[in-house]
């Protein structure tokens, strides 16, 4: 067993807490709901980037390339100053939702390069300009631009001209669970010598200023020598701090500077050393801002460097629970050893990836991004609504405002984030997708994440999963059951066929409550047609589905109903697995089987036998608008809403059915006594390849017709995957007219042109990894039943026919093509940016964007959303780099396995 696997095992058994310290600092705490105490709920304006350096946060901490313990008592991150900037670089800069022409947007260049799952070794890169950072230019130019224009990025300012920047590599290595080594290597890429101030910063999260008796005593950092200190905390104990010499230790306190923020000031500034003290000392030359007694709750080891052209300088820092006589004697050897162990771990992990350095680099950086995107997330809604004893009394109306019906919610955990700057809060359906690739490197962490959202202090008493902090009541697609089942299967395979049924059973019971919530709350007419609302697809339809419709009434959602059919099948399959050892679950599996059949009936016959979501003329699924006069109108927008019925598919082996006689008898009775149900789904009784049975919303003919549209390059099929909307709507916009206005939906392959549905959201044409991943998996499931004989044209109109496994592999290839270098060395995701495409200090560093341009493949939206775009790690396992599109002759079925198996 490799060293990294041993560490994970030791952590799992409690023998050694290897994950006690990790990358749990967020990249942005300012501008979040948690830190918003405004009367109007305007989180972006209440606590700004400008105020962040001066305000002690209530609920969490942020830092540049930072780590903390898993309760975030003690934090370690990097500060930088080039001698030109107006402020110390302690945090990443970006625009708020109102400032960006496409919503919130980080305006920095940084890359997560490596991490083991125990965080025994971690590495990231921050690119720091040598000239004054163009804060105001970025604000003003983006404010000037319209939604129809591209975003103005840091690269567009010319700040990296002549390579006048530093590559700052931040590395962490653990000598032990409580012995952390930080190495900062700064490369001057420019033509001249340039100054750089490097400041490893250590501080305590402020838990003492809020008026709670058991948290009133502040911990203490104090110098014990010229370059040594101690960090003492009642919960953590005493840590010893060591810095390379020459270094000056600077101290202040992690307390709010009310003199700068305009808040109440209980005492004069004299004798107080606030959170922004180190910034003011270094940048403004205010020597009164730091504590001359060399103690406080925040400190920095100040290294003032002059780095020659092409030169690199190294700064080292160590934090240890044990006192060390020679803290740097073994430092280099430990860092080198942890890197070697990381290489060994990923070398084993990547055996299924073709022997291509580019593919392996992409996969390893994707894993790094996912592992770096863990965050300590703290949000107690009751305390947040009521306010703290030591703070001014909050307006009474706040108690009835945002998230006021979630008073039970208490989050204080390490959670996988979608993007630690743009989305530094968990989202229920994002998290489900994160767990698939995370399970490849750390199945225990993935399982714990899935358990987490089902805990009593997360799950609403009604059974609803919390969506995200801006609106916990919003509705995400119910993919939690799918992720639970897939992670269970992956973990079972890792353990030689022994499944963690305790995990499966625990999550299954809570998801039963969630399923019941959907049935009771999101089926207004009790016809098994669901009106989920937002469902994550916020910019896809005619109307804002989270808001009351301008027409009145409600939308009968093709996607909401299909998600529920998928949910029912996932629950049925989990119950069947649990029934192998506990027969009670046979009856429960039968109940979910019945739910699926009635949803399938509703999809086809509208639940009342009169109106359905399938359109015979267009051979496609549409949403239906149900107005107060009881009229129904199909909203003929060809989007992924109509493709989601593909996801409700399950294949059951005959052997499993034979082992569950009660379930099989119940299924047989339903199909014999409810013949209208048996006719509306793919035939359950009919055995397919390998004596298997199929449950699906799509009969063979409908499957063919749906795939005909999906695989048409003039509609959904892009060079880089399946578009969110058919390109048909580029020349044929869909218009829905009301007496007051016309609502138009048009194909938009890039950033959103409408702000109706939110800032930088766009589902109107780009390529999204989560939907593409589910399409690929669904095609593989259909192939498992139909086998090689079932073939369709790919692409539509080409005259070339392939089985569904081959098409799934081809779609995987189109998605991986976004990142892989082509024959000329270019990556489509980098588009026409020559610096990213060709510069040796840029071209091999990857960004994992939120979504991708539907025609060119350019990366768009959040730039570090490794969360669901991290699914690339699964697809790379089955792709040959630079593989050509399927040839004209369909060969034997590929051996590609379903990604989640």
Write a compact overview of the structure shown.
This protein is globular. A nine-stranded antiparallel β-sheet has the order 6-7-8-9-17-13-12-11-15. The chain has a domain at 3-351: Distorted Sandwich (Beta-galactosidase, Chain A, domain 5).
What is the tally of beta strands?
A: 34
CATH class label of the domain at 3-351: Mainly Beta
- Given helix and strand content, the structural type is alpha+beta
Share of helix, binned: 25-40%
Mean of residue pLDDT values: 92
Which percent range describes the beta-strand content? 15-25%
Write the layout of secondary structure elements.
Blueprint (H helix, E strand, L loop, with lengths): L2 H11 L7 E2 L20 H4 L2 H4 L14 E3 L4 E8 L12 E2 L9 E2 L3 E6 L5 E9 L5 H10 L20 E12 L2 E10 L5 E11 L15 E4 L4 E6 L3 E7 L4 E5 L5 H4 L15 H8 L10 E2 L1 E10 L4 E9 L10 H19 L7 H16 L1 E7 H6 L23 E7 L11 H14 L1 H10 L27 H15 L6 H21 L32 E3 L1 H22 L4 H22 L8 E2 L4 E2 L1 E4 L5 E4 L13 E5 H5 L2 H13 L1 H4 L13 E5 L3 H11 L6 E2 L2 E2 L5 H4 L2 E4 L4 E4 L23 H18 L4 E3 L7 E3 H13 L17 H5 L12 E2 L6 E2 L5 H4 L2 H4 L26
Antiparallel strand pairs: 1-2, 2-3, 3-10, 4-5, 6-7, 7-8, 8-9, 9-17, 10-16, 11-12, 11-15, 12-13, 13-17, 14-16, 18-19, 20-23, 21-22, 23-24, 25-26, 27-28, 29-30, 31-32, 33-34
Helix pairs in contact: 10-11, 10-12, 11-12, 12-13, 12-14, 13-14, 14-15, 15-17, 21-22
Describe this protein's structure.
With 901 residues, the chain is an alpha+beta fold. The strands form 11 sheets. The chain has a 9-stranded antiparallel beta sheet with strand order 6-7-8-9-17-13-12-11-15. A hairpin with a 5-residue loop joins β23 and β24. The two termini are 23 Å apart. The relative contact order is 0.08.
């Amino acid at each position: 067993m490799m060293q990294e696997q041993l560490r994970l095992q030791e952590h799992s058994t409690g023998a050694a807490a290897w994950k006690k310290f990790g990358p749990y600092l967020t990249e942005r705490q300012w501008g979040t709901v948690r830190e918003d105490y405004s009367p109007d709920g305007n989180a972006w304006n209440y606590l700004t980037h400008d105020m962040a350096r001066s305000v002690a946060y209530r609920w969490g901490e942020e830092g540049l390339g930072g780590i903390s313990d898993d309760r975030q008592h003690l934090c370690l991150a990097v500060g930088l100053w080039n001698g030109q900037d107006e402020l110390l670089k302690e945090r990443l800069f970006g625009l708020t939702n109102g400032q960006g022409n496409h919503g919130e947007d980080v305006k920095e260049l940084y890359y997560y390069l490596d991490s083991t799952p125990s965080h025994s070794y971690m590495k990231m890169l921050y690119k720091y300009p040598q000239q004054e950072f163009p804060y105001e230019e970025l604000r003003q130019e983006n404010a000037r631009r319209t939604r129809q224009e591209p975003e103005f990025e840091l690269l567009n300012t010319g700040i990296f001209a002549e390579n006048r920047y530093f590559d700052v590599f931040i590395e962490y290595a653990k000598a032990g669970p409580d012995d952390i080594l930080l190495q900062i290597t700064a490369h001057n890429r420019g033509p001249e010598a340039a100054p750089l101030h490097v400041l490893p910063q250590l501080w305590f999260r402020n838990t003492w200023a809020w008026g709670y008796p058991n948290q009133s005593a502040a911990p203490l950092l104090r110098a014990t020598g010229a370059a040594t200190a101690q960090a003492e905390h009642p919960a953590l104990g005493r840590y010893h701090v060591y810095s390379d010499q020459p270094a000056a230790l600077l101290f202040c306190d992690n307390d709010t500077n009310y003199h700068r923020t305009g808040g109440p000031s209980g005492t004069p500034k004299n004798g107080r050393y606030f959170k922004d003290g180190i910034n003011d000392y270094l940048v403004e030359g205010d020597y009164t801002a730091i504590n001359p007694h060399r103690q406080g709750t925040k400190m920095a080891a100040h290294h003032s460097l002059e780095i020659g052209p092409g030169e690199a300088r190294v700064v080292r820092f160590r934090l240890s629970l044990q006192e060390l006589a020679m803290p740097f004697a073994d430092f280099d050897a430990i860092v080198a050893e942890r890197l070697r162990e990381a290489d060994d771990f990923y070398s084993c992990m990547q055996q299924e990836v073709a022997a291509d350095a580019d593919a392996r680099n992409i996969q390893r950086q994707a894993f790094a991004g996912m592992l770096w995107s863990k965050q300590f997330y703290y949000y107690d809604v009751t305390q947040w609504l009521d306010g703290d004893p030591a703070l001014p009394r909050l307006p009474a109306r706040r108690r009835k405002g945002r998230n006021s019906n979630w008073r039970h919610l208490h989050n204080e955990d390490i959670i996988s984030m979608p993007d630690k700057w743009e989305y530094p809060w968990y989202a229920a359906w994002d998290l489900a997708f994160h767990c698939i690739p995370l399970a490849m490197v750390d199945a225990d962490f993935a399982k714990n994440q899935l358990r987490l959202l089902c805990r009593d202090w997360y799950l609403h008493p009604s059974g609803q999963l919390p969506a995200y902090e801006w609106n916990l009541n919003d509705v995400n697609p119910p993919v939690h059951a799918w992720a639970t089942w897939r992670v269970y299967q992956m973990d079972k395979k890792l353990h030689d066929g022994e499944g963690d049924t305790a995990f499966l059973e625990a999550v299954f019971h809570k998801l039963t409550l969630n399923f019941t919530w959907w049935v009771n709350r999101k089926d207004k007419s009790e016809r098994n047609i669901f009106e989920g609302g937002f469902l994550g697809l916020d910019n896809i339809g005619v109307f804002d589905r989270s808001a009351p419709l301008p027409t009145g009434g409600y939308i009968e959602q093709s996607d909401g109903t299909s998600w529920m059919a998928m949910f029912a099948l996932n629950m049925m399959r989990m119950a069947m697995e649990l029934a192998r050892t506990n027969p009670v679950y046979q009856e429960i599996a039968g109940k979910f089987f019945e739910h699926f059949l009635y949803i399938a009936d509703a999809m086809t016959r509208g639940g009342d036998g009169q109106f359905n979501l399938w359109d015979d003329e267009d051979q496609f699924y549409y949403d239906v608008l149900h107005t107060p006069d009881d009229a129904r109108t199909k909203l003929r927008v060809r989007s992924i809403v109509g493709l989601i019925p593909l996801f409700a598919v399950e294949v059951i082996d005959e052997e499993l059915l034979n082992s569950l006689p009660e379930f099989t008898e119940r299924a047989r009775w339903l199909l014999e006594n409810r013949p209208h149900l048996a006719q509306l789904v793919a035939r359950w009784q009919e055995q397919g390849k390998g004596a298997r049975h199929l449950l699906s919303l799509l009969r063979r003919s409908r499957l063919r017709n749906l795939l005909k549209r999906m695989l048409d390059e003039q509609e959904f099929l892009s060079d880089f995957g399946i578009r969110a909307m058919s390109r048909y709507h580029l020349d044929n916009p869909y218009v829905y007219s009301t007496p007051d206005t016309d609502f138009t939906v048009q194909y938009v392959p890039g950033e959103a042109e409408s702000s109706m549905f939110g800032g930088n959201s766009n589902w109107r044409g780009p390529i999204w990894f989560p939907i593409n991943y589910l399409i690929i998996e669904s095609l593989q499931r259909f192939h498992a039943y139909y086998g090689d004989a079932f073939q369709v044209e790919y692409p539509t109109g080409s005259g070339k026919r392939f089985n569904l496994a081959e098409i799934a592999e081809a779609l995987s290839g189109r998605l991986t093509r976004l990142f892989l270098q082509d024959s000329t060395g270019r990556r489509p995701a980098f588009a026409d940016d020559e610096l990213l495409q060709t510069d040796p200090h840029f071209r091999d560093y990857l960004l994992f964007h939120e979504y991708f341009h539907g025609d060119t493949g350019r990366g768009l939206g959040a730039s570090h959303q490794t969360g669901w775009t991290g699914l690339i790690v699964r697809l790379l396992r089955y792709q040959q780099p630079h593989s050509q599109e399927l040839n004209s002759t369909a060969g034997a079925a590929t051996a590609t396995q379903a990604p989640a198996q």
